[in-house]
């Protein structure tokens, strides 16, 4: 596979109802993630932890992207993706119910929080890989940017707007209530998936060994220069994102520089969702009118600027404006995900998506660890310019590797 000769996914019959259900399950799950991203660090702080504990639980939630992605990709390519999505949603609900019970009984601890975060991280790896690998089966090629923009808009509203605001209110009342709500939302995702029908693509007659399947996915990623650059650039971008979101609650929550309550912190993140929502709505138009290179470059500059704001001010409106600017990452995601979905054959999409995300999302635990070290040995405020520098370097590398020609639709 190369940037000039692209193997397209085999055609399937798109079904509007299937995408609607997939979209609904994604919306419920990502709203749960939005509540969870506020509840997790706040719960760690409420249990007596500091910057190290926040970094630990966030690293546990994100580590599966680094250590389990490749095997998840093989799984997604070999089993019924609908059943996999249902199973993961059920496990998520059960795990959150247990955590809510532990916290209600007063048995919560940083270790228990980290264990649950690790389990949910594995579930997230499976769910997201299966969902994004299913999208090209139910959406025609010329509509991929629109479908991915719709998913990104939903993620922005639910994960960065409604979820954090709801999470801040719930965790301010009772930590167990916040995690209970997360479990209920995962149950709603399970219900949305019950009627899902994904067009069947027969597996290859001769099944590869797991080891060979892993190598095949990695090899396909390695041979496609733009796709590899997006994966490695995504690693740096996500490293910066994770570092930013370790340092931000430390600065924002009392007794930090911004002096916010848990509810105020949730609202800060919610305001940030505005930028992501606007970018999601504009992404299909921007992708049509401007080159992918220009889209990536502009988004990276805006994202880096947003990351850097808390390094120089404690004024809440300015920090909120910086959080809004971080929504520019949506444009990078839309154009790179759409490229991957067009460039990779369906029978390999799970493995290549997983290999891609191993590199890209592997930056999340690395960023959490980096922020913990910098905050522990220097200052949490130093984390912000470091995150911005990572994004600028990544944006430049991805832009230079982007082909000038468009990837043909199916």
Compile the SSE list and pairings.
Blueprint: H1 16-46, H2 51-67, H3 69-78, H4 81-104, H5 110-138, H6 144-173, H7 175-193, H8 210-223, H9 225-252, H10 262-289, H11 292-308, H12 316-325, H13 329-343, H14 346-377, H15 383-401
Helix pairs in contact: 1-2, 1-5, 1-6, 1-7, 2-5, 2-9, 2-14, 3-5, 3-8, 3-14, 4-5, 4-7, 5-14, 6-7, 6-10, 6-13, 8-14, 9-14, 9-15, 10-12, 10-13, 11-12, 11-13, 11-15
Keywords: Cell membrane, Membrane, Transmembrane, Transmembrane helix, Transport
Pfam families: MFS_3
Domain Major facilitator superfamily (MFS) profile: 1-406
Report what the structure shows.
This protein has 15 helices and no strands. It has a single domain, classed as Growth Hormone, Chain: A, CATH 1.20.1250.20. 79% of the residues lie in helices and 0% in strands. It is globular, with a radius of gyration of 20 Å. The protein has 410 residues and is mostly helical. Helix 10 crosses helix 13 (329-343) and helix 11 (292-308) packs antiparallel against helix 15 (383-401). The protein has helices at 16-46, 51-67, 69-78, 81-104, 110-138, 144-173, 175-193, 210-223, 225-252, 262-289, 292-308, 316-325, 329-343, 346-377, 383-401.
């Amino acid at each position: 596979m190369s940037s000039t000769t692209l193997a397209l996914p085999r055609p399937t019959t798109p079904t509007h109802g299937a995408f609607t259900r997939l979209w609904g399950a994604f919306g419920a799950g990502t709203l749960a993630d939005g509540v969870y991203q506020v509840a997790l660090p706040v719960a760690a702080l409420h249990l007596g932890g500091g910057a190290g504990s926040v970094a630990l639980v966030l690293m546990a939630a994100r580590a599966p992207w680094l250590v389990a992605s490749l095997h998840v990709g093989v799984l997604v390519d070999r089993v019924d993706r609908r059943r996999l999505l249902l199973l993961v949603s059920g496990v998520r609900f059960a795990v959150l119910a247990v955590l809510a019970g532990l916290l209600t009984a007063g048995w919560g601890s940083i270790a228990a929080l980290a264990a649950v975060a690790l389990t949910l991280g594995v579930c997230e790896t499976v769910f997201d890989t299966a969902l994004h690998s299913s999208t090209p089966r139910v959406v025609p090629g010329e509509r991929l940017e629109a479908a991915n923009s719709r998913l990104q808009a939903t993620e922005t509203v639910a994960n960065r707007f409604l979820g954090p605001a709801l999470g801040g209110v719930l965790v301010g009342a009772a930590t167990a209530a916040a995690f209970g709500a997360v479990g209920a939302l995962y149950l709603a995702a399970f219900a949305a998936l019950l009627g899902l029908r994904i067009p069947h693509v027969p597996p290859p007659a001769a099944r590869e060994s797991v080891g060979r399947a892993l190598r095949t996915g990695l090899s396909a990623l390695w041979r496609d220069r733009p796709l590899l650059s997006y994966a490695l650039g995504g690693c740096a971008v996500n490293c910066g994102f994770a570092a930013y979101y370790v340092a931000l609650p430390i600065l924002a929550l009392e007794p930090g520089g911004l002096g916010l309550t848990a509810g105020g912190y949730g609202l800060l993140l919610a305001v940030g969702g505005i930028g992501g929502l606007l970018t999601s709505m504009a992404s299909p138009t921007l992708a049509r009118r401007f080159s992918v290179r220009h889209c990536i470059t502009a988004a990276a500059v805006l994202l880096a600027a947003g990351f850097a704001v808390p390094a120089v001010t404690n004024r809440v409106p300015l920090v909120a404006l910086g959080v809004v600017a971080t929504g520019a990452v949506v444009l990078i995601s839309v154009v790179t995900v759409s490229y991957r979905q067009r460039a990779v054959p369906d029978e390999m999409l799970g493995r290549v998506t997983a290999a891609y995300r191993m590199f890209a999302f592997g930056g999340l635990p690395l960023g959490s660890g980096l922020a913990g070290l910098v905050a522990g040995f220097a200052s949490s405020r130093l984390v912000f310019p470091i995150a911005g520098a990572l994004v600028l370097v990544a944006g430049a590398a991805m832009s230079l590797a982007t082909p000038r020609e468009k990837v043909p639709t199916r």
